[in-house]
């Protein structure tokens, strides 16, 4: 079921009409009118649900409105908005079932239209009763009212409209207007109102529920299509697109469960009947014969109605139903392409005829279903499963087709049609990630042998080896090919067929690989403490006047990605003494002991005392909050589950400062942040838009190569030791090698300690220093100067920006979307998806939705 803070269209509609009815009654009561005669409490309601159900005759609305208009009660903007939203969805339903050029029987739709008319009349009279009370709702231009305005033209007005409705609530409950509150006090006991219409509806309420469900599902489909278009255009990466899609599929399935648990089973006995019944009803209203007279050869239905079937998910349902008889015990039915004739893919999917669309969809579905049967037959535990694979494997076991299955396979088709003819592009990205991961992990295993560390966990070595084995057997070589050939001898099997045909699985696997790389990389850095010492030295050298400017880009990016207050224990130091103190504090040394070392009471050659004084060095944590949440689910059950914990992580972004590659929060983020803080509710689209935006923001951080940076830092320490060996012996004697051999980063301790002692000695000799405002850096330090020379020498081969170069190659976001027209274009899309149900004027939104529906049904 959907979490309580997410509202489907039907739930929001019921909450809106209930809130408006409640306000009507309370406002009329506050005017001194007795409305008890209109109440008809349902005595059976208490047995079914909590609260009180009150039945209101529809004609009572006009009476209540008369009372309120005469009393001059102002219509609160929150009530106006929920009423406009309720009218919009009802109108959308009415238009959908009156389209196609047919005439609607008066009796069939009179009740539905009468209800809309009553609500519109109430809105018009209440809006005009007080001059200027809701004048802002009339700002919509004639073009928008006619449905001629484009999405892009709507965008500039969204934030202005939002500013007028800061207190808008998704349900309209318990929210008051700014200034004087004309709304009567809320009743203590919650009530649910049901409208009694004197006209009997030909279409029961269950059909309206089914319409809302299919409309929500198709809105999710539009969002998923746009997500993969953004991937295709290089605006987001395959991981973001896959995780967003997988999450949308899970939310879609929860929507289906939610509606089906409440829908009338006499109208819809099972979930697949929602698809087939709504499709047949549309055909009936369009006067399309239900027999086979208009079908072509090998066509399961009249392809002239393909748009209607697509909207109702009937195409997917019918294709899956046709596959069920093929399932036989011990048999893997692999499809031979071209069985139903050649498929013309010379044109983009949207430009093909209905026949060509159906042929390509049928071929794609039948081609992939054999892989799901194969996975069930061999009982193979996959590295991880996306929701589409999981659901379709369930169908192969149950041999029953549900709306869940139809929705999943339709998403599979939608994604493939968007990416065609480059459907395998996400798999190619996965292969590149695999090669990159193999190189890094193989190098790490070799480094562990040459530079062992007693605190390195054995489990991490086992994890590394396990990932390498998976890469070799499943991503660089198809381990399933021999098993498939055994199951279906003589059939030509394509390598990596499931990964190539299912971009969601490829993207999720790529995400999991990078999550593991990040986990291993951070554990490596925290165990060896390889990066932190050089960060402290690098920061000190940046402030040393005698050291030319250094530009170690990878370290700069590392600091940008992580909290400087953790690394520098409160903030960046400037002088040598402060830098040395913070450096020792970072290593967990007590403040009293640090003071002794800084003042020279404890010599660096006293290795035993130094080691005993080291406590628990600080460690860095992942800054990819969402990635970390997903990683928990992936590690525990190898499934990319959209769990409540992950949802909470998404919502945390709405209560905190956004972690973004841009300097300021996006407008889309502001919209959601304000809404979440005031209402604690979101629509599924808003949740997914937030998820997609923040996953894309995290991508460069997730791809940062911590293992490579660790190895380069170890290499620098070894070169620095050789370069500064004479100075180390001069200051500390030959025994210093014992420390550096065991812990190469210890070389920074000797550098900073020598620089500190040198500055203290010079201050003793020259107490006034070279200037009246002398700092310990102004005396100069041979050790610091030579350390800076060594860093510049080290970076000559480009070793100071390898991680940055890798991001420019592998990241879709790094340095691309933070600026320019692409960013503006993406921002407008984000605003649209986050504002569509809460900010856009409902009338304009309804007209746009009608136009979109025209093209689909």
UniProtKB/TrEMBL annotation:
Residues 11-260 form the DUF6604 domain. Pfam families: DUF6604. PANTHER family: DUF6604 DOMAIN-CONTAINING PROTEIN (PTHR38795). This is DUF6604 domain-containing protein. It comes from Arthrobotrys oligospora (strain ATCC 24927 / CBS 115.81 / DSM 1491).
């Amino acid at each position: 079921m959907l979490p309580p803070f997410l509202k489907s269209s039907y739930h929001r509609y019921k909450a809106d009409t209930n809130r408006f009815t409640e306000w009507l009654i309370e406002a009329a009561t506050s005017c001194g009118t007795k409305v008890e005669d209109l109440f008809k409490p349902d005595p059976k309601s208490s047995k079914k649900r909590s609260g009180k159900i009150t039945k209101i005759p529809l004609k009572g609305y006009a009476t209540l409105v008369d009372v309120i208009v005469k009393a001059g009660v102002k219509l609160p903007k929150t009530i106006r908005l929920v009423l406009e939203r309720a009218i919009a969805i009802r109108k959308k339903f009415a238009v959908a079932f009156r389209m196609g050029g047919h005439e609607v029987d008066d009796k069939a739709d009179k009740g539905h239209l009468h209800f809309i008319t009553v609500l519109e009349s109430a809105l018009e009279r209440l809006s005009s009763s007080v001059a200027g009370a809701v004048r802002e709702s009339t700002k919509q231009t004639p073009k928008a009212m006619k449905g001629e305005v484009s999405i892009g033209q709507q965008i500039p007005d969204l934030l202005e409209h939002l500013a007028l409705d800061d207190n808008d609530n998704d349900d309209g409950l318990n929210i008051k207007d700014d200034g004087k509150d004309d709304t009567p006090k809320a009743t203590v006991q919650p009530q649910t109102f049901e409208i009694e219409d004197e006209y009997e509806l030909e279409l029961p309420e269950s059909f309206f529920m089914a319409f809302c469900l299919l409309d929500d599902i198709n809105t999710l489909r539009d969002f998923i299509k746009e997500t993969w278009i953004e991937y295709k255009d290089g605006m987001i990466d395959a991981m973001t697109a896959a995780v967003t899609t997988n999450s949308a599929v899970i939310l879609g399935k929860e929507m289906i469960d939610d509606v089906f648990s409440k829908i009338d089973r006499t109208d819809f006995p099972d979930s697949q009947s929602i698809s087939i019944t709504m499709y047949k009803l549309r055909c009936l209203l369009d006067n399309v014969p239900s027999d086979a007279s208009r079908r072509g050869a090998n066509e399961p239905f009249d392809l002239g109605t393909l748009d209607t079937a697509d909207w109702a998910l009937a195409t997917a349902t019918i294709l899956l139903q046709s596959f069920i008889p093929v399932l036989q015990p011990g048999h893997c039915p692999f499809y031979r392409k071209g069985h139903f004739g050649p498929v013309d893919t010379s044109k983009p999917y949207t430009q093909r005829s209905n026949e060509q669309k159906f042929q390509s969809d049928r071929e794609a579905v039948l081609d992939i279903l054999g892989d799901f049967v194969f996975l069930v037959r061999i009982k193979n535990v996959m590295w991880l499963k996306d929701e589409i694979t999981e659901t379709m494997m369930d169908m192969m076991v149950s041999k029953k087709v549900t709306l869940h299955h139809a929705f999943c396979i339709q998403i599979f088709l939608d994604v493939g049609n968007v990416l065609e003819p480059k459907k395998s592009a996400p798999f190619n990205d996965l292969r590149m990630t695999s090669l990159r991961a193999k190189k890094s992990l193989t190098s790490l295993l070799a480094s562990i042998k040459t530079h062992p560390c007693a605190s390195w966990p054995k489990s991490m070595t086992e994890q590394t080896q396990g990932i390498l084995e998976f890469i070799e057997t499943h991503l660089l070589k198809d381990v399933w090919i021999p098993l498939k050939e055994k199951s279906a001898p003589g059939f030509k099997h394509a390598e990596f067929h499931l990964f190539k045909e299912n971009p969601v699985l490829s993207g999720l696997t790529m995400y999991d690989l990078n999550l593991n790389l990040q986990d291993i990389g951070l554990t490596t850095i925290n165990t060896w403490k390889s990066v932190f010492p050089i960060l402290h030295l690098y920061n000190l050298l940046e402030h040393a006047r005698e050291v030319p400017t250094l530009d170690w880009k990878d370290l700069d990016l590392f600091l940008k990605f992580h909290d400087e207050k953790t690394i520098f224990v409160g903030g960046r130091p400037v002088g040598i003494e402060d830098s040395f103190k913070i450096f020792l504090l970072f290593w967990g040394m007590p403040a009293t002991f640090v003071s002794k070392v800084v003042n020279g009471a404890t010599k660096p050659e006293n290795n035993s005392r130094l080691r005993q004084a080291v406590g628990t060095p600080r460690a860095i944590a992942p800054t990819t909050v969402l990635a970390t949440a997903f990683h928990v689910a992936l590690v525990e059950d190898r499934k990319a589950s959209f769990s409540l914990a992950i949802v909470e992580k998404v919502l945390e972004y709405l209560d905190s400062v956004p972690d973004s590659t841009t300097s300021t929060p996006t407008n889309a983020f502001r919209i959601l942040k304000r809404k979440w803080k005031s209402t604690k509710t979101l629509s599924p689209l808003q949740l997914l838009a937030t998820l997609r935006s923040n996953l894309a923001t995290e991508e460069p951080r997730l791809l940062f190569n911590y293992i490579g940076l660790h190895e380069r830092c170890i290499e620098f320490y070894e070169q620095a030791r050789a370069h500064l060996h004479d100075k180390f012996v001069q200051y500390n004697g030959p025994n210093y090698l014992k420390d550096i051999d065991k812990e190469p980063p210890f070389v920074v301790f000797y550098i900073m300690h020598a620089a500190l002692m040198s500055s203290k000695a010079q201050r003793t000799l020259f107490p006034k220093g070279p200037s009246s405002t002398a700092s310990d850096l102004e005396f100069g330090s041979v050790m610091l100067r030579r350390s800076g020379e060594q860093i510049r020498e080290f970076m000559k081969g480009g070793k100071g920006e390898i991680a940055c170069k890798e991001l420019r190659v592998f990241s879709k976001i790094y340095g691309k979307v933070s600026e320019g027209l692409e960013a503006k274009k993406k921002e407008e899309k984000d605003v649209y998806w986050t504002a569509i149900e809460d900010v856009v004027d409902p009338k304009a939104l309804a007209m746009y939705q009608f136009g979109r529906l025209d093209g689909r049904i």
